[in-house]
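[step 3/7] fold_predict: job queued, chain A
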Amino acid sequence: MNLRRSLQTFVVMGAVWACSLTFAQAADKILFIPHDNRPISAEETADVVRRAGYDVVMPPEEMLSSGYDRFGDTEALWKWTRENLPGAKAAMISADSMIYGGLVPSRKHEEPEEKLLNRAQRLADLQKENPQLKLYVFASLMRTPKSGAAAGVEEPEYCRTYGADIFRRSGLLDKQETTPLNPHEKQELSKLEAAIPQEDWQDWKNRRDKNIHVSKKLIDMARAGELSYLVIGKDDNAPLSQTHREARELNAYAQGISTTKFQLLAGIDEFGLLLMTRAVNDMENVIPFVYTEYAPGKGYDTVPSYSDAKIGDSVKAAIRVAGGVPVSSPDRADLILLVNTNVNGATGESWNMQEGNKLFPANNGKWRENTQAMVQKVNDYVYLRRNIALADIAFANGADNALMKSLQQGNLLYRLRAYSGWNTATNSTGFALATGMLSSRMSDDDCDQLLSMRYLDDWGYQSNVRGQVGALVYGFRQDDAYAHIGKREGAITARLEKEMRLFAQKNLPPFSGLDEVKVKLPWHRMFEAAFSW
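[step 4/7] structure written:
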Protein backbone atom coordinates (compact mmCIF):
# COMPACT_ATOMS: atom_id res chain seq x y z
CA MET A 1 0.00 0.00 0.00
CA ASN A 2 1.07 3.60 -0.47
CA LEU A 3 3.27 4.72 2.41
CA ARG A 4 1.37 7.99 2.85
CA ARG A 5 -1.81 6.00 3.56
CA SER A 6 -0.36 3.14 5.60
CA LEU A 7 -1.32 4.38 9.09
CA GLN A 8 -4.92 5.12 8.12
CA THR A 9 -5.27 1.76 6.39
CA PHE A 10 -3.84 -0.07 9.40
CA VAL A 11 -6.38 1.55 11.73
CA VAL A 12 -9.42 0.73 9.61
CA MET A 13 -8.26 -2.53 8.06
CA GLY A 14 -10.28 -4.77 10.33
CA ALA A 15 -13.49 -2.80 9.84
CA VAL A 16 -13.04 -2.58 6.06
CA TRP A 17 -12.35 -6.33 5.85
CA ALA A 18 -15.50 -7.18 7.81
CA CYS A 19 -17.64 -4.79 5.78
CA SER A 20 -16.21 -6.03 2.49
CA LEU A 21 -17.34 -9.57 3.21
CA THR A 22 -20.91 -8.40 3.73
CA PHE A 23 -20.76 -6.16 0.66
CA ALA A 24 -19.27 -8.87 -1.55
CA GLN A 25 -22.16 -11.19 -0.73
CA ALA A 26 -24.61 -8.53 -1.90
CA ALA A 27 -22.62 -7.27 -4.90
CA ASP A 28 -24.66 -6.77 -8.05
CA LYS A 29 -23.78 -9.14 -10.87
CA ILE A 30 -22.63 -7.83 -14.26
CA LEU A 31 -22.11 -10.19 -17.19
CA PHE A 32 -19.14 -9.14 -19.33
CA ILE A 33 -18.16 -10.64 -22.68
CA PRO A 34 -15.03 -8.90 -24.02
CA HIS A 35 -13.97 -8.91 -27.66
CA ASP A 36 -10.88 -11.04 -26.93
CA ASN A 37 -8.73 -12.25 -24.04
CA ARG A 38 -6.00 -9.61 -24.12
CA PRO A 39 -5.35 -8.46 -20.54
CA ILE A 40 -6.49 -4.86 -21.08
CA SER A 41 -9.63 -5.99 -22.93
CA ALA A 42 -10.65 -8.62 -20.40
CA GLU A 43 -9.21 -9.14 -16.92
CA GLU A 44 -7.80 -5.65 -16.39
CA THR A 45 -11.13 -4.12 -17.41
CA ALA A 46 -13.06 -6.48 -15.12
CA ASP A 47 -10.65 -5.79 -12.25
CA VAL A 48 -11.48 -2.07 -12.28
CA VAL A 49 -15.22 -2.75 -11.92
CA ARG A 50 -14.71 -5.48 -9.31
CA ARG A 51 -12.70 -3.06 -7.19
CA ALA A 52 -15.68 -0.71 -7.41
CA GLY A 53 -17.71 -3.40 -5.62
CA TYR A 54 -19.38 -5.36 -8.44
CA ASP A 55 -19.43 -9.05 -9.28
CA VAL A 56 -18.15 -9.17 -12.87
CA VAL A 57 -18.65 -12.57 -14.48
CA MET A 58 -16.77 -13.45 -17.68
CA PRO A 59 -16.76 -16.55 -19.90
CA PRO A 60 -13.88 -19.03 -19.73
CA GLU A 61 -10.83 -17.75 -21.57
CA GLU A 62 -10.84 -20.67 -24.01
CA MET A 63 -14.13 -19.44 -25.50
CA LEU A 64 -12.63 -16.05 -26.44
CA SER A 65 -10.46 -14.98 -29.34
CA SER A 66 -6.88 -15.41 -28.18
CA GLY A 67 -4.59 -14.50 -31.05
CA TYR A 68 -4.44 -13.67 -34.72
CA ASP A 69 -5.28 -17.25 -35.70
CA ARG A 70 -7.55 -18.42 -32.86
CA PHE A 71 -11.15 -17.31 -33.21
CA GLY A 72 -13.58 -17.29 -30.32
CA ASP A 73 -16.26 -19.99 -30.17
CA THR A 74 -19.47 -18.07 -30.91
CA GLU A 75 -21.85 -20.94 -30.21
CA ALA A 76 -20.17 -21.73 -26.91
CA LEU A 77 -20.39 -18.04 -25.97
CA TRP A 78 -24.11 -17.90 -26.73
CA LYS A 79 -24.72 -21.02 -24.64
CA TRP A 80 -22.62 -19.68 -21.77
CA THR A 81 -24.42 -16.32 -21.89
CA ARG A 82 -27.87 -17.86 -21.56
CA GLU A 83 -26.71 -20.12 -18.73
CA ASN A 84 -25.11 -17.27 -16.77
CA LEU A 85 -27.63 -14.46 -17.27
CA PRO A 86 -29.88 -15.40 -14.33
CA GLY A 87 -29.26 -12.95 -11.49
CA ALA A 88 -27.38 -10.42 -13.63
CA LYS A 89 -28.48 -6.79 -13.36
CA ALA A 90 -26.65 -5.83 -16.55
CA ALA A 91 -24.83 -7.48 -19.45
CA MET A 92 -21.94 -5.91 -21.32
CA ILE A 93 -21.54 -7.79 -24.59
CA SER A 94 -19.07 -7.48 -27.45
CA ALA A 95 -21.01 -7.92 -30.67
CA ASP A 96 -17.71 -8.81 -32.35
CA SER A 97 -17.30 -11.84 -30.08
CA MET A 98 -20.89 -13.01 -30.47
CA ILE A 99 -21.12 -12.43 -34.24
CA TYR A 100 -17.60 -12.92 -35.65
CA GLY A 101 -15.70 -14.68 -32.87
CA GLY A 102 -13.74 -11.63 -31.73
CA LEU A 103 -12.19 -8.34 -32.83
CA VAL A 104 -9.43 -9.81 -35.01
CA PRO A 105 -11.80 -12.45 -36.49
CA SER A 106 -14.11 -9.60 -37.59
CA ARG A 107 -11.30 -8.61 -39.99
CA LYS A 108 -10.48 -12.09 -41.31
CA HIS A 109 -13.59 -14.30 -41.17
CA GLU A 110 -15.18 -16.08 -44.14
CA GLU A 111 -18.74 -16.25 -42.76
CA PRO A 112 -21.75 -15.65 -45.02
CA GLU A 113 -23.67 -12.45 -44.34
CA GLU A 114 -26.91 -14.26 -43.52
CA LYS A 115 -25.28 -16.14 -40.66
CA LEU A 116 -23.79 -12.91 -39.28
CA LEU A 117 -27.15 -11.13 -39.37
CA ASN A 118 -28.85 -14.07 -37.66
CA ARG A 119 -26.30 -13.91 -34.85
CA ALA A 120 -26.89 -10.18 -34.49
CA GLN A 121 -30.63 -10.84 -34.16
CA ARG A 122 -29.92 -13.08 -31.17
CA LEU A 123 -28.93 -9.99 -29.19
CA ALA A 124 -32.43 -8.56 -29.61
CA ASP A 125 -33.87 -11.97 -28.70
CA LEU A 126 -31.74 -11.98 -25.57
CA GLN A 127 -33.19 -8.64 -24.49
CA LYS A 128 -36.73 -9.84 -25.26
CA GLU A 129 -36.22 -13.00 -23.19
CA ASN A 130 -34.84 -10.92 -20.28
CA PRO A 131 -36.90 -7.69 -20.24
CA GLN A 132 -35.52 -6.55 -16.85
CA LEU A 133 -31.92 -6.88 -18.04
CA LYS A 134 -29.89 -3.81 -18.98
CA LEU A 135 -28.20 -4.94 -22.20
CA TYR A 136 -25.24 -2.82 -23.34
CA VAL A 137 -23.60 -3.76 -26.65
CA PHE A 138 -20.37 -2.56 -28.24
CA ALA A 139 -19.19 -3.26 -31.77
CA SER A 140 -16.36 -2.20 -34.06
CA LEU A 141 -16.33 -0.46 -37.40
CA MET A 142 -13.43 -2.15 -39.20
CA ARG A 143 -10.08 -0.42 -39.02
CA THR A 144 -8.00 0.84 -41.96
CA PRO A 145 -4.30 0.21 -41.21
CA LYS A 146 -1.89 2.68 -42.79
CA SER A 147 0.62 0.06 -43.93
CA GLY A 148 1.42 -3.63 -44.12
CA ALA A 149 3.43 -3.32 -40.92
CA ALA A 150 0.46 -1.73 -39.14
CA ALA A 151 -1.83 -4.48 -40.46
CA GLY A 152 0.52 -7.18 -39.17
CA VAL A 153 -0.92 -10.67 -38.94
CA GLU A 154 -4.30 -9.34 -37.79
CA GLU A 155 -5.48 -8.68 -41.35
CA PRO A 156 -5.66 -10.89 -44.47
CA GLU A 157 -2.26 -11.86 -45.88
CA TYR A 158 -2.45 -9.50 -48.88
CA CYS A 159 -2.60 -6.48 -46.53
CA ARG A 160 1.05 -7.01 -45.66
CA THR A 161 1.89 -6.44 -49.33
CA TYR A 162 -0.72 -3.89 -50.34
CA GLY A 163 -1.68 -2.35 -46.98
CA ALA A 164 -0.29 1.12 -47.72
CA ASP A 165 -1.84 1.12 -51.20
CA ILE A 166 -5.23 0.03 -49.85
CA PHE A 167 -5.11 2.75 -47.21
CA ARG A 168 -4.26 5.47 -49.71
CA ARG A 169 -6.81 4.28 -52.28
CA SER A 170 -9.56 4.22 -49.66
CA GLY A 171 -8.54 7.70 -48.52
CA LEU A 172 -8.82 9.12 -52.01
CA LEU A 173 -12.21 7.46 -52.47
CA ASP A 174 -13.31 8.92 -49.13
CA LYS A 175 -12.19 12.40 -50.19
CA GLN A 176 -13.82 12.03 -53.60
CA GLU A 177 -17.25 11.74 -51.99
CA THR A 178 -17.03 15.21 -50.43
CA THR A 179 -14.36 17.13 -52.41
CA PRO A 180 -13.37 16.81 -56.10
CA LEU A 181 -9.95 15.24 -56.59
CA ASN A 182 -7.31 17.29 -58.34
CA PRO A 183 -5.64 15.90 -61.52
CA HIS A 184 -2.67 14.54 -59.59
CA GLU A 185 -4.95 12.69 -57.14
CA LYS A 186 -7.03 11.28 -59.98
CA GLN A 187 -3.88 9.94 -61.61
CA GLU A 188 -2.69 8.50 -58.32
CA LEU A 189 -6.05 6.77 -57.79
CA SER A 190 -5.84 5.17 -61.24
CA LYS A 191 -2.35 3.86 -60.48
CA LEU A 192 -3.49 2.41 -57.15
CA GLU A 193 -6.46 0.68 -58.81
CA ALA A 194 -4.02 -1.00 -61.18
CA ALA A 195 -1.51 -1.88 -58.45
CA ILE A 196 -3.88 -3.73 -56.10
CA PRO A 197 -5.05 -7.11 -57.43
CA GLN A 198 -8.78 -6.91 -58.07
CA GLU A 199 -9.53 -10.13 -56.17
CA ASP A 200 -7.76 -8.80 -53.07
CA TRP A 201 -9.53 -5.45 -53.21
CA GLN A 202 -12.88 -7.20 -53.67
CA ASP A 203 -12.25 -9.57 -50.76
CA TRP A 204 -11.36 -6.60 -48.56
CA LYS A 205 -14.46 -4.66 -49.65
CA ASN A 206 -16.82 -7.64 -49.32
CA ARG A 207 -15.89 -8.22 -45.69
CA ARG A 208 -16.32 -4.54 -44.92
CA ASP A 209 -19.72 -4.52 -46.60
CA LYS A 210 -20.81 -7.35 -44.31
CA ASN A 211 -19.61 -5.34 -41.31
CA ILE A 212 -21.63 -2.32 -42.47
CA HIS A 213 -24.78 -4.41 -42.89
CA VAL A 214 -24.35 -5.94 -39.44
CA SER A 215 -23.74 -2.46 -37.97
CA LYS A 216 -26.92 -1.15 -39.55
CA LYS A 217 -28.89 -4.05 -38.12
CA LEU A 218 -27.52 -3.27 -34.65
CA ILE A 219 -28.46 0.37 -35.13
CA ASP A 220 -31.99 -0.70 -36.11
CA MET A 221 -32.19 -2.71 -32.90
CA ALA A 222 -31.05 0.27 -30.83
CA ARG A 223 -33.57 2.50 -32.58
CA ALA A 224 -36.37 0.03 -31.77
CA GLY A 225 -35.35 -0.17 -28.11
CA GLU A 226 -34.29 -3.80 -28.45
CA LEU A 227 -30.95 -2.96 -26.82
CA SER A 228 -30.49 -0.78 -23.75
CA TYR A 229 -27.53 0.98 -25.35
CA LEU A 230 -25.27 0.51 -28.39
CA VAL A 231 -21.87 2.02 -29.10
CA ILE A 232 -19.91 1.42 -32.30
CA GLY A 233 -16.21 2.23 -32.33
CA LYS A 234 -14.16 3.46 -35.24
CA ASP A 235 -11.15 1.18 -34.92
CA ASP A 236 -7.70 2.43 -36.03
CA ASN A 237 -8.31 4.95 -38.80
CA ALA A 238 -7.51 8.44 -40.12
CA PRO A 239 -9.34 11.55 -41.34
CA LEU A 240 -9.23 10.18 -44.90
CA SER A 241 -9.78 6.42 -44.86
CA GLN A 242 -12.36 3.73 -45.48
CA THR A 243 -13.28 3.69 -41.79
CA HIS A 244 -13.94 7.44 -41.89
CA ARG A 245 -16.10 7.04 -45.02
CA GLU A 246 -18.12 4.21 -43.48
CA ALA A 247 -18.63 6.19 -40.28
CA ARG A 248 -20.14 8.98 -42.33
CA GLU A 249 -22.53 6.45 -43.87
CA LEU A 250 -23.53 5.00 -40.49
CA ASN A 251 -24.02 8.41 -38.91
CA ALA A 252 -26.40 9.32 -41.72
CA TYR A 253 -28.22 6.01 -41.28
CA ALA A 254 -28.56 6.57 -37.52
CA GLN A 255 -29.86 10.13 -37.85
CA GLY A 256 -32.60 10.84 -35.34
CA ILE A 257 -31.52 8.27 -32.74
CA SER A 258 -30.91 9.79 -29.31
CA THR A 259 -27.38 9.64 -27.88
CA THR A 260 -29.01 7.94 -24.88
CA LYS A 261 -29.51 4.92 -27.17
CA PHE A 262 -26.57 4.99 -29.60
CA GLN A 263 -23.20 6.59 -30.22
CA LEU A 264 -20.47 6.13 -32.81
CA LEU A 265 -17.01 7.40 -31.87
CA ALA A 266 -13.29 6.76 -32.33
CA GLY A 267 -11.81 3.87 -30.34
CA ILE A 268 -12.70 0.30 -29.43
CA ASP A 269 -10.58 -1.43 -26.76
CA GLU A 270 -11.75 0.93 -24.01
CA PHE A 271 -15.47 0.42 -24.68
CA GLY A 272 -15.92 -2.53 -22.33
CA LEU A 273 -14.86 -0.39 -19.36
CA LEU A 274 -16.77 2.69 -20.53
CA LEU A 275 -19.98 0.68 -20.85
CA MET A 276 -19.58 -1.11 -17.52
CA THR A 277 -19.07 2.30 -15.95
CA ARG A 278 -22.31 3.41 -17.60
CA ALA A 279 -24.05 0.32 -16.19
CA VAL A 280 -22.81 1.13 -12.67
CA ASN A 281 -23.92 4.75 -12.98
CA ASP A 282 -27.31 3.63 -14.31
CA MET A 283 -27.81 1.12 -11.50
CA GLU A 284 -26.88 3.68 -8.87
CA ASN A 285 -28.76 6.56 -10.56
CA VAL A 286 -25.60 8.65 -10.60
CA ILE A 287 -24.55 11.14 -13.30
CA PRO A 288 -20.90 12.16 -12.72
CA PHE A 289 -19.79 15.64 -13.82
CA VAL A 290 -16.40 15.61 -15.57
CA TYR A 291 -14.16 18.60 -16.25
CA THR A 292 -11.45 18.01 -18.85
CA GLU A 293 -8.28 20.08 -19.06
CA TYR A 294 -5.65 19.76 -21.77
CA ALA A 295 -1.98 20.62 -21.93
CA PRO A 296 -1.11 23.96 -23.58
CA GLY A 297 -0.93 24.08 -27.35
CA LYS A 298 -3.25 22.13 -29.67
CA GLY A 299 -4.80 20.35 -26.70
CA TYR A 300 -8.50 19.78 -27.43
CA ASP A 301 -7.90 20.12 -31.19
CA THR A 302 -5.25 17.37 -31.34
CA VAL A 303 -6.17 14.74 -33.93
CA PRO A 304 -4.15 11.80 -32.62
CA SER A 305 -2.66 8.89 -34.48
CA TYR A 306 -5.18 6.11 -35.22
CA SER A 307 -8.11 8.54 -35.08
CA ASP A 308 -10.13 10.72 -37.44
CA ALA A 309 -11.48 13.06 -34.76
CA LYS A 310 -10.26 15.79 -32.42
CA ILE A 311 -9.39 14.27 -29.07
CA GLY A 312 -11.61 16.81 -27.32
CA ASP A 313 -14.64 15.62 -29.28
CA SER A 314 -13.75 11.98 -28.57
CA VAL A 315 -13.43 12.69 -24.84
CA LYS A 316 -16.82 14.43 -24.70
CA ALA A 317 -18.40 11.46 -26.47
CA ALA A 318 -16.69 9.00 -24.11
CA ILE A 319 -17.96 10.89 -21.07
CA ARG A 320 -21.50 10.47 -22.39
CA VAL A 321 -20.93 6.78 -23.18
CA ALA A 322 -19.89 6.27 -19.55
CA GLY A 323 -23.05 7.98 -18.32
CA GLY A 324 -21.48 11.28 -17.32
CA VAL A 325 -21.82 14.91 -18.31
CA PRO A 326 -18.95 17.16 -19.44
CA VAL A 327 -18.86 20.45 -17.52
CA SER A 328 -17.02 23.69 -18.25
CA SER A 329 -15.79 24.45 -14.72
CA PRO A 330 -13.68 22.36 -12.32
CA ASP A 331 -15.71 23.74 -9.43
CA ARG A 332 -18.75 21.71 -10.54
CA ALA A 333 -16.84 18.52 -11.36
CA ASP A 334 -16.80 15.19 -9.56
CA LEU A 335 -13.74 14.22 -11.60
CA ILE A 336 -10.92 16.22 -13.19
CA LEU A 337 -9.63 14.53 -16.37
CA LEU A 338 -6.19 15.86 -17.35
CA VAL A 339 -5.02 15.06 -20.89
CA ASN A 340 -1.29 15.15 -21.62
CA THR A 341 -0.74 16.29 -25.22
CA ASN A 342 2.15 17.81 -27.13
CA VAL A 343 2.13 21.51 -28.02
CA ASN A 344 2.06 20.71 -31.75
CA GLY A 345 -0.61 18.01 -31.43
CA ALA A 346 1.72 15.20 -32.55
CA THR A 347 1.16 11.77 -31.00
CA GLY A 348 3.96 9.71 -32.51
CA GLU A 349 4.95 6.24 -31.42
CA SER A 350 6.82 5.81 -28.17
CA TRP A 351 9.55 4.05 -30.18
CA ASN A 352 10.56 5.36 -33.63
CA MET A 353 12.73 4.07 -36.47
CA GLN A 354 16.14 5.38 -37.42
CA GLU A 355 18.32 4.64 -40.46
CA GLY A 356 19.75 1.15 -40.52
CA ASN A 357 16.75 -0.33 -38.68
CA LYS A 358 18.15 0.92 -35.40
CA LEU A 359 15.79 2.30 -32.82
CA PHE A 360 15.96 5.68 -31.22
CA PRO A 361 13.45 6.67 -28.57
CA ALA A 362 11.70 9.96 -29.27
CA ASN A 363 10.20 9.30 -25.86
CA ASN A 364 13.62 9.67 -24.26
CA GLY A 365 12.66 11.21 -20.92
CA LYS A 366 13.93 14.69 -21.72
CA TRP A 367 11.63 17.53 -20.74
CA ARG A 368 9.57 18.89 -23.58
CA GLU A 369 7.65 22.13 -23.83
CA ASN A 370 4.58 20.85 -21.97
CA THR A 371 6.18 18.71 -19.26
CA GLN A 372 6.32 21.36 -16.56
CA ALA A 373 2.82 22.59 -17.38
CA MET A 374 1.29 19.13 -16.91
CA VAL A 375 3.17 18.48 -13.68
CA GLN A 376 1.96 21.83 -12.37
CA LYS A 377 -1.66 21.01 -13.29
CA VAL A 378 -1.45 17.73 -11.37
CA ASN A 379 0.16 19.45 -8.40
CA ASP A 380 -2.45 22.23 -8.33
CA TYR A 381 -5.41 19.83 -8.30
CA VAL A 382 -3.73 17.60 -5.72
CA TYR A 383 -3.36 20.66 -3.49
CA LEU A 384 -7.10 21.30 -3.92
CA ARG A 385 -7.78 17.64 -3.02
CA ARG A 386 -9.65 16.92 -6.22
CA ASN A 387 -10.20 13.49 -7.80
CA ILE A 388 -7.80 13.39 -10.75
CA ALA A 389 -7.59 11.02 -13.72
CA LEU A 390 -4.65 11.47 -16.08
CA ALA A 391 -4.81 10.40 -19.74
CA ASP A 392 -1.27 10.35 -21.15
CA ILE A 393 -1.46 10.64 -24.96
CA ALA A 394 1.68 12.56 -25.91
CA PHE A 395 2.85 9.25 -27.41
CA ALA A 396 0.95 6.28 -28.78
CA ASN A 397 1.70 2.87 -27.29
CA GLY A 398 3.36 4.09 -24.14
CA ALA A 399 3.56 6.62 -21.33
CA ASP A 400 5.44 9.91 -21.58
CA ASN A 401 8.76 9.16 -19.86
CA ALA A 402 9.49 12.81 -19.07
CA LEU A 403 6.09 13.35 -17.46
CA MET A 404 6.14 10.11 -15.49
CA LYS A 405 9.62 10.68 -14.11
CA SER A 406 8.65 14.21 -13.08
CA LEU A 407 5.50 12.97 -11.32
CA GLN A 408 7.55 10.30 -9.58
CA GLN A 409 10.14 12.80 -8.38
CA GLY A 410 7.36 15.07 -7.11
CA ASN A 411 5.68 12.22 -5.18
CA LEU A 412 2.58 12.65 -7.35
CA LEU A 413 2.16 9.24 -9.00
CA TYR A 414 -0.07 7.91 -6.23
CA ARG A 415 -1.93 11.15 -5.65
CA LEU A 416 -3.94 10.43 -8.81
CA ARG A 417 -7.12 8.35 -8.74
CA ALA A 418 -6.63 6.94 -12.24
CA TYR A 419 -4.04 6.88 -15.03
CA SER A 420 -3.73 5.43 -18.52
CA GLY A 421 -1.12 5.77 -21.24
CA TRP A 422 -1.33 2.56 -23.25
CA ASN A 423 -2.20 1.88 -26.92
CA THR A 424 -4.09 4.59 -28.88
CA ALA A 425 -5.07 8.03 -27.56
CA THR A 426 -8.76 7.17 -27.31
CA ASN A 427 -7.92 3.90 -25.54
CA SER A 428 -6.02 5.92 -22.94
CA THR A 429 -8.55 8.72 -22.47
CA GLY A 430 -11.45 6.25 -22.23
CA PHE A 431 -9.73 3.94 -19.76
CA ALA A 432 -8.53 6.79 -17.51
CA LEU A 433 -11.94 8.44 -17.62
CA ALA A 434 -13.90 5.30 -16.74
CA THR A 435 -11.49 4.27 -13.97
CA GLY A 436 -11.60 7.81 -12.59
CA MET A 437 -15.41 7.78 -12.51
CA LEU A 438 -15.45 4.47 -10.63
CA SER A 439 -12.62 5.43 -8.26
CA SER A 440 -15.00 7.24 -5.90
CA ARG A 441 -16.32 3.79 -4.95
CA MET A 442 -12.84 2.38 -4.25
CA SER A 443 -10.50 2.38 -1.31
CA ASP A 444 -7.17 4.17 -1.62
CA ASP A 445 -5.46 0.79 -1.64
CA ASP A 446 -7.57 -0.40 -4.59
CA CYS A 447 -6.73 2.77 -6.51
CA ASP A 448 -3.04 2.21 -5.78
CA GLN A 449 -3.23 -1.35 -7.10
CA LEU A 450 -4.85 -0.17 -10.34
CA LEU A 451 -2.33 2.64 -10.69
CA SER A 452 0.54 0.20 -10.17
CA MET A 453 -0.78 -2.01 -12.99
CA ARG A 454 -0.92 0.93 -15.38
CA TYR A 455 2.52 2.19 -14.37
CA LEU A 456 4.00 -1.27 -14.86
CA ASP A 457 2.31 -1.78 -18.23
CA ASP A 458 2.08 1.66 -19.83
CA TRP A 459 5.25 3.21 -18.43
CA GLY A 460 7.53 0.33 -17.53
CA TYR A 461 6.72 -2.13 -20.29
CA GLN A 462 5.38 -0.19 -23.27
CA SER A 463 7.67 2.84 -23.08
CA ASN A 464 10.84 1.15 -21.89
CA VAL A 465 11.26 -2.58 -21.32
CA ARG A 466 9.48 -3.82 -24.46
CA GLY A 467 11.74 -1.77 -26.70
CA GLN A 468 14.90 -2.56 -24.75
CA VAL A 469 14.35 -6.31 -24.80
CA GLY A 470 13.02 -6.22 -28.36
CA ALA A 471 16.22 -4.52 -29.50
CA LEU A 472 18.23 -7.37 -27.99
CA VAL A 473 16.03 -10.05 -29.56
CA TYR A 474 15.80 -8.85 -33.16
CA GLY A 475 16.77 -5.25 -33.55
CA PHE A 476 13.10 -4.39 -32.95
CA ARG A 477 11.86 -3.34 -36.36
CA GLN A 478 8.49 -1.60 -36.22
CA ASP A 479 6.46 -4.71 -37.08
CA ASP A 480 8.28 -7.13 -34.78
CA ALA A 481 6.10 -6.33 -31.77
CA TYR A 482 3.35 -8.27 -33.58
CA ALA A 483 5.53 -11.24 -34.54
CA HIS A 484 5.13 -14.57 -32.79
CA ILE A 485 8.25 -15.33 -30.80
CA GLY A 486 8.01 -19.13 -30.89
CA LYS A 487 10.61 -21.13 -29.01
CA ARG A 488 12.25 -17.97 -27.68
CA GLU A 489 9.27 -17.15 -25.48
CA GLY A 490 10.70 -18.66 -22.28
CA ALA A 491 13.98 -16.79 -22.55
CA ILE A 492 12.29 -13.54 -23.57
CA THR A 493 9.80 -13.76 -20.70
CA ALA A 494 12.61 -14.36 -18.20
CA ARG A 495 14.44 -11.28 -19.45
CA LEU A 496 11.25 -9.22 -19.37
CA GLU A 497 10.63 -10.22 -15.76
CA LYS A 498 14.16 -9.24 -14.79
CA GLU A 499 13.86 -5.82 -16.44
CA MET A 500 10.35 -5.19 -15.07
CA ARG A 501 11.47 -5.95 -11.53
CA LEU A 502 14.37 -3.54 -11.93
CA PHE A 503 11.98 -0.90 -13.26
CA ALA A 504 9.60 -1.35 -10.31
CA GLN A 505 12.47 -1.22 -7.81
CA LYS A 506 13.78 2.00 -9.34
CA ASN A 507 10.50 3.84 -9.97
CA LEU A 508 7.67 2.54 -7.77
CA PRO A 509 7.13 2.33 -3.99
CA PRO A 510 8.11 -0.93 -2.25
CA PHE A 511 4.65 -2.48 -2.55
CA SER A 512 4.46 -6.11 -1.56
CA GLY A 513 5.12 -8.40 -4.53
CA LEU A 514 6.48 -5.89 -7.04
CA ASP A 515 9.97 -7.23 -6.50
CA GLU A 516 8.69 -10.57 -7.86
CA VAL A 517 6.41 -9.30 -10.65
CA LYS A 518 5.49 -12.03 -13.14
CA VAL A 519 5.16 -11.51 -16.90
CA LYS A 520 3.20 -13.51 -19.47
CA LEU A 521 2.81 -12.97 -23.20
CA PRO A 522 -0.75 -14.21 -23.78
CA TRP A 523 -0.67 -13.78 -27.56
CA HIS A 524 2.91 -15.08 -27.81
CA ARG A 525 4.18 -11.75 -29.11
CA MET A 526 5.66 -8.69 -27.44
CA PHE A 527 2.98 -6.12 -28.29
CA GLU A 528 1.06 -6.76 -25.05
CA ALA A 529 1.90 -8.48 -21.77
CA ALA A 530 0.10 -9.59 -18.61
CA PHE A 531 1.53 -8.72 -15.19
CA SER A 532 0.87 -10.18 -11.75
CA TRP A 533 2.45 -9.75 -8.33
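[step 5/7] annotate
The domain at 27-146+205-285 is CATH 3.40.50.2300 (Rossmann fold).
The first helix runs from residue 6 to 25.
exit 0
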